[in-house]
Amino acid sequence: MDFDISWLLLSLPVTFVLGWAASRFDLRQLRLENRRAPKAYFRGLNFLLNEQQDQAIDAFIEAVQNDPDTSELHFALGNLFRRRGEYERAVRVHQHLLSRGDLSSADRHRAQHALALDYLRAGLLDRAEEALLKLEGTPFQSEARLALLANYERSRDWVRAAEVAQRLENAEHGSFAGRLAHYLCEQSAAHLAAHEPEAAQKLLEQAMHNAPNAPRPRIELAKLLGQRGHPDQALATLQSVHDVAPAAVPLIAAHLAQLGIASGQAPQVLERIKAHYAEAPCIDCLEAIVTLETHLGKSPAETRQWYLRHLEKEPSLVAASRWLASEEQALAQPSVQRALEHAVKPLTRYRCAACGFEAKQHFWQCPGCQAWDSYPARRVEEL
After folding, report:
1. pTM higher than 0.85, yes or no?
2. To the nearest 10°, the Cα dihedral for 64, 68, 70, 73?
3. Are 114 and 96 in contact (CB under 8 A)?
4. Hey, how many other C-beta atoms are within 10 angstroms of the C-beta on 59?
5. Taking a C-beta distance cutoff of 8 angstroms, is the pair 315, 378 a contact?
6. Are 335 and 367 in contact (CB under 8 A)?
7. Distances (CA, A) of 89 to 77, 79, 326
8. How far, in Å, are 108, 122, 303, 324, 334 from residue 310 at the CA level?
9. Where are the alpha helices (DSSP H) in the chain?
10. CA 244-248-253 angle, 5° bins
11. DSSP secondary structure of 134-154
């Protein structure tokens, strides 16, 4: 059978036309898809700017479906899920990113860090620790260590927290001496709960050595020495707080008065507290002065004058309530005294300077925001 070359010549134009048409169709489809993806992406951004997170998530999901290979869209979507508290969905997004073989090293580290944050926000501390440890030696190492430090603090693993804090200090990310002293004090409290006072005392002495200007180790050590029957040593330790951290004196004023009476040094302690009160008047020092003067034999009429002197220096509802409670006429109107005491209670609390959390007692670490040393030594009324 002879081959007819005319058919070949006729097929060439047809093939060209079909190829041209197919290419035009592909280009049109590609343009349509590219048009859809940015449109959904920018629509999601617009929803975010208008604080419409539900609509933004829907738009980003559409954008991811149109372009599943774009890692930035996955990161945006995962972060949105985390902000909304949908931690399980955020974890799935970031785990999907980590499972991709074409992900760059930088994006892989970023996804690992995002996954660790998902676990932290979800309260899965063990999984968060595992994810954060994988970031050692990456550009996210510093952030991971800080998050790991917060993780160990939340779980009250003070030994590991101290190790991470020391690494951060060695890497020149600031001074962690004060926080390390808190960790030793927390470990000391655990030893005391286990009836191991010797081990507790050693840790407090170590904390004093590591952070000589921190008031907490000295306060805790003085309390321990007093419990172990060494009032003189306890008093000397507590008095040293005035030298290294005078702002903390209101926290120790009542304890100073007790130790002064127990050790027979009430007159000396009284003079020391009076000197501090003259420089910085406060309710706690005022109460300690009244306690010591009463112990030393001063009449109620003389001790009551301290409240009036305090009111001359600064208006204080707490001081007025104390003065009124010590007056005989207060007995004639008990309802007035009860109402005043009720009004005074909120003023005698302590308030966190970081988050505003108020409490009846002073905390070294805020129960609300977990910040250290955020509670001033003064009461709410005096702030």
Report:
1. no
2. 20
3. no
4. 22
5. no
6. no
7. 9, 10, 63
8. 63, 50, 12, 14, 24
9. 5-49, 53-66, 71-83, 87-99, 105-122, 125-133, 141-154, 158-170, 177-193, 197-210, 215-227, 231-244, 249-262, 266-279, 283-295, 300-313, 317-326, 334-344
10. 110
11. TTTTSTTHHHHHHHHHHHHHH
Amino acid at 211: A
Rounded to a whole number, what is the distance in angstroms from the first to the last CA of the chain?
109
Cα dihedral 317/321/323/328 (nearest 10)? 150
Here the tokens at position 233 are 């040593």
Amino acid at 210: N
Phi and psi at 350, nearest 5°, equal -110, 145
Q: What are phi and psi of 133, to 5 degrees?
A: -65, -25
Cβ contact 362:377 at 8 Å: yes
| Sequence-separated (6 or more) residues with CB below 8 Å from residue 255 | 219, 222, 223, 226, 238
| Residue 73, CA distances (Å) to 49, 107, 178, 316, 350 in order | 16, 12, 42, 58, 45
Domains of the chain: 12-96+109-154 (1.25.40.10)
Query: Which residues have C-beta within 8 Å of that of residue 48, sequence separation ≥ 6?
Result: 56, 80
Q: Along the 383 residues of the chain, how does pLDDT read in single tens digits?
A: 454 555 545 555 555 555 544 444 454 554 444 444 455 555 555 554 455 656 655 655 555 455 555 667 777 777 877 887 888 888 887 887 787 777 788 888 988 999 999 998 888 888 998 999 999 889 999 889 999 998 899 889 999 999 999 998 888 888 888 999 999 999 999 999 999 999 999 999 999 999 999 999 999 999 999 998 898 999 999 999 988 999 999 999 999 999 999 888 999 999 999 999 998 899 999 999 999 999 988 888 888 888 888 888 888 888 888 887 776 555 556 676 777 777 888 888 999 999 999 999 999 999 888 899 999 999 988 88
Residue given tokens 């998902």 in the structure block: 118
